Amino acid sequence: MKKVVRVAITGAAGQIGYSLLFRLASGETFGKDVKVHLNLLELPVALKGAEGIAMELEDCAFDTLAGIDCYSDANKAFEGINWALMVGAKPRGPGMERSDLIRENGPIFIEQGKALNRAASDVRIVVVGNPCNTNCLIALHNAADVPAHHFTAMTALDENRAKAVLAHKAGVSVGDVEHMIIWGNHSNTMYPDFENATIAKAPVTSKITDREWLQKDFLKKVQQRGAEVISARGKSSAASAGSACIDHVKRLNTAGTVFSCAIMSDGHAYDVPKGIIFSFPVRSKGNGAYEIEQGVQLSTFAKEKIKASIQELQQEREVIKNLLP
């Protein structure tokens, strides 16, 4: 009998949910020897849409799909799950400040954190809905019985974007770009670490010698890619975000893989203060476990960029301090 992994997806009827659900069900994410049971969580007004997607999933006849249930109650959706992919979040509207977005999403992640605490005994959480670092912090604080290291926020999309930008500039395959680390917040202060990345096993700086481009244009391109996508298609990134979520889960389950992942800082690594969800290079231990990759050398330039992201995350924590039990 095949092992069954139970996965809950919030905001399942949204564009990102639609992009990732079929790849979860197909066996790509957890392997062909594992069956997946999907719990689709949606707002009551969107529940019919989730039920329609469930029909499509059934119609694909994936032999790795163990079952599908649709819910509007987080307590029921999270019952007995192994993974929670927290995709659903209120999007940023016209004229909305980042602090306003944080406050408006706060109640969602309070409720879902409490539901995780009540319903799931051993769960790994991936927060995708933005602002993902601080939403993750809110959920974590409201799920006191779930170990803090079981919570992660996704910076895989930023890592993937950075690799693609460097590959395009160097005229190589994206597979030639390795060791790309995203430090900090999933925001315009994130730092894509080109100094420690490689192209065809050689330092990026030996393949792309225009240092000014790397320090300015490259960083700006990665940091503002989401806005560029919105400007071009009139909607935010969906398929690429869903694909990055799949990458995130696969990397967490593949022992030895080093990748970018936002986690709770314990104050001991790279001078990042305790108590914020910060993107580090982490090494997977497999089965959702990880450890921070130590020994990465940081230049003065890198440290200044990282410091700016730390300050932003501390400011965001101050905004939602009343939401943290």
Order of neighbouring strands in the sheet with most strands = 3-2-1-4-5-6
Estimated helix fraction: 40-55%
Strand content: 15-25%
Net shape: globular
| Cα end-to-end separation | 42 Å
Give the low-pLDDT segments: none
Mean pLDDT: 95
Can you tag this structure with a few keywords?
11 helices, 325 residues, alpha/beta, 3-stranded antiparallel β-sheet
Explain how this protein is built.
The protein has eleven helices and 14 strands. It is of the alpha/beta class. It has a six-stranded parallel sheet with strand order 3-2-1-4-5-6. Strand 2 (34-41), helix 2 and strand 3 form a beta-alpha-beta unit. Helix 1 crosses helix 10 (239-252). It starts with a strand and ends in a 6-residue tail after the last helix.
What's the short version?
With 325 residues, the protein is of the alpha/beta class. The chain is 42% helix and 21% strand.
Topology record:
Elements lengths: L2 E8 L4 H11 L8 E8 L5 H13 L5 E7 L2 H4 L5 E4 L11 H22 L4 E4 L4 H10 L9 E3 L2 H15 L6 E2 L2 E3 L7 E3 L4 E2 L2 E2 H4 L3 H13 L1 H9 L5 H14 L5 E7 L12 E10 L2 E4 L7 H20 L6
Parallel strand pairs: 1-2, 1-4, 2-3, 4-5, 5-6
Antiparallel strand pairs: 7-10, 8-9, 10-11, 12-13, 13-14
Helix pairs in contact: 1-10, 4-5, 6-8
